[in-house]
Amino acid sequence: MPKTLADIKKSLDCHLGKRLQLRANGGRKKTVECAGVLRETYRAIFVVELDQEDNTCKRVSYSYTDILTEAVEITFLDEAKAAVAK
């Protein structure tokens, strides 16, 4: 994974509109796992639109710092399928 916030943003900009699996620290030893689509990237945050049948909220946002500190892990499903096919 990229080492700076700018590199993380550039990496996510290349994946706009793609499906992803998100794993986030929910606090108190809880882990939140959900699937969705990367919809928007802003200067300090990115927005994921979640699959509606799994979740009660429509969208979540996280900062690039969350990825840098490994509080949030993202796996793009298109790349995961390609890796399995090889």
From TrEMBL:
The organism's place on the tree of life at top rank: Bacteria
Short name of one Pfam family: VEG
InterPro entries: Protein_Veg
PANTHER family on file: PROTEIN VEG
Family matches, as NCBIfam families: BflmStimVeg
Name of the protein described by the UniProt record: Biofilm formation stimulator Veg
Species name: Lysinibacillus xylanilyticus
Lineage: Bacteria, Bacillati, Bacillota, Bacilli, Bacillales
Gene: veg
